[in-house]
Amino acid sequence: MTNTLTTAPLPALLDRLYRQAAAATSPAIAAMSSEERERFMLSKTDYQEFYSRMKDLWLPVARDTGTLLYLLARSTKARSIVEFGTSFGISTLHLAAALRDNGGGRLITSEFEPSKAEKARDHLIEGGLSDLVEIREGDALRTLAFDLPESVDLVLLDGAKALYAEVLSLVEARLRPGALIVADNADYCPEYLAYVRSPGSGYLSVPFAGDVELSMRLG
Ligand SMILES: C[S@@+](CC[C@H](N)C(=O)[O-])C[C@H]1O[C@@H](n2cnc3c(N)ncnc32)[C@H](O)[C@@H]1O
Fold this sequence. Notes:
It comes from Massilia frigida. By secondary structure, this protein is an alpha/beta fold. The chain has a single domain (4-15, 57-217), classed as Rossmann fold.
Protein backbone atom coordinates (compact mmCIF):
# COMPACT_ATOMS: atom_id res chain seq x y z
CA MET A 1 0.00 0.00 0.00
CA THR A 2 1.35 3.44 -0.96
CA ASN A 3 2.21 5.76 1.88
CA THR A 4 3.93 8.85 0.60
CA LEU A 5 4.35 10.34 4.08
CA THR A 6 6.57 7.50 5.29
CA THR A 7 8.38 6.77 2.04
CA ALA A 8 11.49 8.56 0.68
CA PRO A 9 11.95 11.44 0.14
CA LEU A 10 9.32 12.75 2.62
CA PRO A 11 10.62 11.52 6.04
CA ALA A 12 14.14 12.91 5.55
CA LEU A 13 12.81 16.10 3.97
CA LEU A 14 10.37 16.74 6.82
CA ASP A 15 13.06 15.97 9.45
CA ARG A 16 15.33 18.54 7.81
CA LEU A 17 12.59 21.17 7.46
CA TYR A 18 11.47 20.78 11.08
CA ARG A 19 15.12 21.15 12.16
CA GLN A 20 15.46 24.31 10.05
CA ALA A 21 12.18 25.61 11.48
CA ALA A 22 13.41 25.05 15.04
CA ALA A 23 16.68 26.87 14.32
CA ALA A 24 15.09 29.94 12.69
CA THR A 25 15.23 33.16 14.69
CA SER A 26 13.77 36.63 14.36
CA PRO A 27 15.33 39.56 16.25
CA ALA A 28 12.28 41.70 15.35
CA ILE A 29 9.96 39.28 17.11
CA ALA A 30 12.30 38.64 20.03
CA ALA A 31 12.27 42.40 20.69
CA MET A 32 8.48 42.48 20.87
CA SER A 33 6.74 42.42 24.24
CA SER A 34 4.23 39.64 24.88
CA GLU A 35 1.47 42.29 25.06
CA GLU A 36 2.40 43.63 21.63
CA ARG A 37 2.50 40.11 20.20
CA GLU A 38 -0.91 39.33 21.70
CA ARG A 39 -2.35 42.54 20.23
CA PHE A 40 -0.99 41.66 16.78
CA MET A 41 -2.33 38.09 17.03
CA LEU A 42 -5.85 39.37 17.64
CA SER A 43 -5.77 42.21 15.10
CA LYS A 44 -7.82 42.15 11.90
CA THR A 45 -5.95 45.14 10.50
CA ASP A 46 -2.26 44.78 11.41
CA TYR A 47 -1.78 41.14 10.43
CA GLN A 48 0.27 41.95 7.33
CA GLU A 49 2.77 43.99 9.33
CA PHE A 50 2.95 41.25 11.97
CA TYR A 51 3.63 38.41 9.53
CA SER A 52 6.03 40.56 7.53
CA ARG A 53 8.08 41.01 10.71
CA MET A 54 7.91 37.21 11.15
CA LYS A 55 8.95 36.38 7.60
CA ASP A 56 12.01 34.44 8.78
CA LEU A 57 10.01 32.29 11.19
CA TRP A 58 8.51 29.07 9.88
CA LEU A 59 5.71 28.65 12.48
CA PRO A 60 4.87 25.14 11.27
CA VAL A 61 2.11 22.92 12.59
CA ALA A 62 3.34 20.62 15.34
CA ARG A 63 4.66 17.26 14.09
CA ASP A 64 1.63 15.43 15.46
CA THR A 65 -0.67 17.95 13.79
CA GLY A 66 1.10 17.32 10.49
CA THR A 67 0.49 13.58 10.86
CA LEU A 68 -3.10 14.31 11.88
CA LEU A 69 -3.60 16.33 8.69
CA TYR A 70 -2.34 13.46 6.57
CA LEU A 71 -4.52 11.00 8.45
CA LEU A 72 -7.70 13.12 8.20
CA ALA A 73 -7.17 13.78 4.50
CA ARG A 74 -6.60 10.06 3.87
CA SER A 75 -9.52 8.85 5.95
CA THR A 76 -11.94 11.27 4.27
CA LYS A 77 -10.49 10.38 0.84
CA ALA A 78 -9.97 14.08 0.24
CA ARG A 79 -9.34 15.14 -3.35
CA SER A 80 -9.86 18.86 -2.90
CA ILE A 81 -8.13 20.82 -0.14
CA VAL A 82 -7.84 24.53 0.67
CA GLU A 83 -5.12 25.84 2.98
CA PHE A 84 -4.85 29.29 4.56
CA GLY A 85 -1.19 29.94 5.49
CA THR A 86 1.49 28.04 3.56
CA SER A 87 4.64 29.45 5.18
CA PHE A 88 7.55 27.20 4.09
CA GLY A 89 5.19 24.38 3.12
CA ILE A 90 5.43 21.89 5.99
CA SER A 91 1.66 21.39 6.44
CA THR A 92 1.26 21.58 2.65
CA LEU A 93 3.64 18.63 2.23
CA HIS A 94 1.54 16.52 4.62
CA LEU A 95 -1.71 17.39 2.86
CA ALA A 96 -0.28 16.91 -0.63
CA ALA A 97 1.13 13.51 0.41
CA ALA A 98 -2.41 12.48 1.37
CA LEU A 99 -3.76 13.67 -1.98
CA ARG A 100 -1.12 11.59 -3.76
CA ASP A 101 -2.14 8.50 -1.78
CA ASN A 102 -5.83 9.21 -2.39
CA GLY A 103 -5.18 8.98 -6.11
CA GLY A 104 -4.58 12.67 -6.87
CA GLY A 105 -6.40 15.95 -6.43
CA ARG A 106 -5.88 19.65 -5.98
CA LEU A 107 -4.55 21.63 -3.03
CA ILE A 108 -4.94 25.40 -3.17
CA THR A 109 -2.84 27.16 -0.56
CA SER A 110 -2.27 30.84 0.16
CA GLU A 111 0.73 32.84 1.37
CA PHE A 112 1.35 36.58 1.20
CA GLU A 113 5.07 36.54 1.95
CA PRO A 114 6.79 36.03 -1.46
CA SER A 115 10.04 34.63 0.00
CA LYS A 116 8.07 31.96 1.88
CA ALA A 117 5.98 31.03 -1.15
CA GLU A 118 9.16 30.59 -3.19
CA LYS A 119 10.74 28.32 -0.58
CA ALA A 120 7.51 26.34 -0.22
CA ARG A 121 7.56 25.75 -3.98
CA ASP A 122 11.13 24.42 -3.74
CA HIS A 123 10.15 22.08 -0.89
CA LEU A 124 7.17 20.73 -2.81
CA ILE A 125 9.38 20.05 -5.82
CA GLU A 126 11.88 18.30 -3.54
CA GLY A 127 9.05 16.22 -2.11
CA GLY A 128 7.80 15.30 -5.58
CA LEU A 129 4.39 16.83 -4.83
CA SER A 130 4.37 20.14 -6.69
CA ASP A 131 2.01 18.88 -9.40
CA LEU A 132 -0.78 18.69 -6.79
CA VAL A 133 -0.39 22.15 -5.30
CA GLU A 134 -1.26 25.66 -6.42
CA ILE A 135 0.29 28.35 -4.23
CA ARG A 136 -1.68 31.59 -4.48
CA GLU A 137 0.48 34.53 -3.51
CA GLY A 138 -1.15 37.50 -1.83
CA ASP A 139 -3.70 38.09 0.91
CA ALA A 140 -5.94 35.03 1.23
CA LEU A 141 -8.93 37.32 1.64
CA ARG A 142 -8.41 38.08 -2.05
CA THR A 143 -6.71 34.94 -3.40
CA LEU A 144 -9.24 32.51 -1.94
CA ALA A 145 -12.20 34.63 -3.02
CA PHE A 146 -12.29 33.17 -6.55
CA ASP A 147 -11.88 29.99 -8.56
CA LEU A 148 -12.34 27.43 -5.82
CA PRO A 149 -13.28 23.83 -6.67
CA GLU A 150 -17.02 23.05 -6.79
CA SER A 151 -16.62 20.78 -3.79
CA VAL A 152 -14.03 21.08 -1.01
CA ASP A 153 -13.23 18.11 1.25
CA LEU A 154 -10.83 19.61 3.78
CA VAL A 155 -9.70 23.06 4.88
CA LEU A 156 -6.66 23.96 6.99
CA LEU A 157 -6.83 27.37 8.65
CA ASP A 158 -3.31 28.39 9.74
CA GLY A 159 -2.82 32.01 8.61
CA ALA A 160 -3.63 35.19 10.57
CA LYS A 161 -5.77 33.94 13.43
CA ALA A 162 -8.18 36.88 13.49
CA LEU A 163 -9.23 36.09 9.88
CA TYR A 164 -10.36 32.48 10.40
CA ALA A 165 -14.08 33.31 10.27
CA GLU A 166 -13.66 35.46 7.15
CA VAL A 167 -11.60 32.85 5.34
CA LEU A 168 -14.06 30.11 6.26
CA SER A 169 -16.87 32.23 4.82
CA LEU A 170 -15.03 32.32 1.46
CA VAL A 171 -14.97 28.51 1.27
CA GLU A 172 -18.19 27.68 3.11
CA ALA A 173 -20.52 27.37 0.12
CA ARG A 174 -18.14 24.81 -1.43
CA LEU A 175 -17.83 22.52 1.59
CA ARG A 176 -19.31 19.12 0.96
CA PRO A 177 -21.35 17.50 3.75
CA GLY A 178 -18.78 15.82 5.98
CA ALA A 179 -15.96 18.17 4.96
CA LEU A 180 -13.43 18.79 7.73
CA ILE A 181 -12.02 22.11 8.86
CA VAL A 182 -8.84 22.03 10.91
CA ALA A 183 -8.09 25.34 12.62
CA ASP A 184 -4.66 25.56 14.24
CA ASN A 185 -4.31 27.72 17.36
CA ALA A 186 -7.96 28.73 17.08
CA ASP A 187 -7.93 29.92 20.70
CA TYR A 188 -6.70 33.21 19.27
CA CYS A 189 -9.94 33.56 17.34
CA PRO A 190 -12.90 33.52 19.75
CA GLU A 191 -15.19 34.79 16.99
CA TYR A 192 -14.37 31.73 14.87
CA LEU A 193 -14.84 29.32 17.79
CA ALA A 194 -18.19 30.87 18.72
CA TYR A 195 -19.34 30.48 15.11
CA VAL A 196 -18.35 26.85 14.46
CA ARG A 197 -19.50 25.75 17.91
CA SER A 198 -22.92 27.43 17.75
CA PRO A 199 -25.69 24.85 17.20
CA GLY A 200 -27.25 26.63 14.20
CA SER A 201 -24.01 27.17 12.27
CA GLY A 202 -24.06 23.92 10.34
CA TYR A 203 -20.95 22.43 11.95
CA LEU A 204 -20.06 19.91 14.61
CA SER A 205 -16.95 21.15 16.32
CA VAL A 206 -14.58 20.00 19.05
CA PRO A 207 -11.26 21.17 20.49
CA PHE A 208 -8.72 18.50 19.63
CA ALA A 209 -5.11 17.62 20.38
CA GLY A 210 -4.46 20.68 22.55
CA ASP A 211 -4.28 23.47 20.01
CA VAL A 212 -6.55 22.43 17.16
CA GLU A 213 -10.28 22.99 16.59
CA LEU A 214 -11.68 20.19 14.44
CA SER A 215 -15.01 20.89 12.77
CA MET A 216 -17.18 18.98 10.36
CA ARG A 217 -19.64 20.48 7.90
CA LEU A 218 -23.08 19.02 8.47
CA GLY A 219 -25.33 18.31 5.55
C1 LIG B 1 1.49 29.72 11.14
S1 LIG B 1 2.18 30.06 9.57
C2 LIG B 1 1.68 28.70 8.57
C3 LIG B 1 2.46 27.45 8.83
C4 LIG B 1 2.20 26.35 7.83
N1 LIG B 1 0.80 26.02 7.77
C5 LIG B 1 3.01 25.14 8.20
O1 LIG B 1 2.52 24.29 8.93
O2 LIG B 1 4.16 25.08 7.77
C6 LIG B 1 1.12 31.33 8.98
C7 LIG B 1 1.48 31.80 7.59
O3 LIG B 1 0.34 32.45 7.04
C8 LIG B 1 0.75 33.58 6.32
N2 LIG B 1 -0.41 34.48 6.34
C9 LIG B 1 -0.98 35.07 7.42
N3 LIG B 1 -2.06 35.76 7.07
C10 LIG B 1 -2.19 35.63 5.73
C11 LIG B 1 -3.11 36.14 4.79
N4 LIG B 1 -4.12 36.95 5.14
N5 LIG B 1 -2.98 35.77 3.49
C12 LIG B 1 -1.94 34.96 3.10
N6 LIG B 1 -1.03 34.46 3.96
C13 LIG B 1 -1.14 34.79 5.26
C14 LIG B 1 1.95 34.11 7.07
O4 LIG B 1 2.81 34.88 6.25
C15 LIG B 1 2.60 32.82 7.57
O5 LIG B 1 3.61 32.38 6.69
